[in-house]
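Box 3.1 A note on notation
Throughout this textbook, protein chains are presented in two layers. The first layer is the amino acid sequence; the second is a token string describing backbone geometry. Keep the layers aligned when reading.
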Amino acid sequence: MKSQSMEEHRTSAPVDITCGVITLSDSKYREFQETGEIPESDISGRLLVDALSRDYTVSEYTVIPDDGKMLMSAIHEMIDEGVSVIFTTGGTGIGSRDITVETLREIFEKELDGFGEIFRYLSFKELGAGAILSRATAGVYRGTLIFALPGSPNAVKLGIEIVASEIGHLVKHLRE
């Protein structure tokens, strides 16, 4: 059941939203370094760009290794360029090189707990107990929304499905 005030917020939400995409992957970064081009193998990053481009402007898209300093550098560059929403894909697992969640939680001024909770709930409905491996998260840093998604294409599709209709509403609140 949707509330009237939520619908009013959605209808008054901004449409001039600029997004950025960061893929974290050591192997895809090596390809990027060798060719200077976003790798064809970056299916999840390309899915994000394609999905976001339907309703918003995607002004930044980069591939970096699983490195916290490089992640922070990419985030600061995008924020300085005026990006309102950043999506990361990759680096959210439990391996020793998976640093996305730890890096972001150190900087989040506010965390959107509901995003991760809904993501895991819907993942559980589809995958079962394997959903416990998901550490998808979201939060706010310097007035910018940041969503951290796992690297699998299906996880990216699910993440976009969850937030696509709410991006404008969220940005509206950040701009108030």
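The longest helix spans residues 113-127. Helices lie at 4-11, 26-35, 43-53, 68-80, 100-107, 113-127, 153-163, 167-175.
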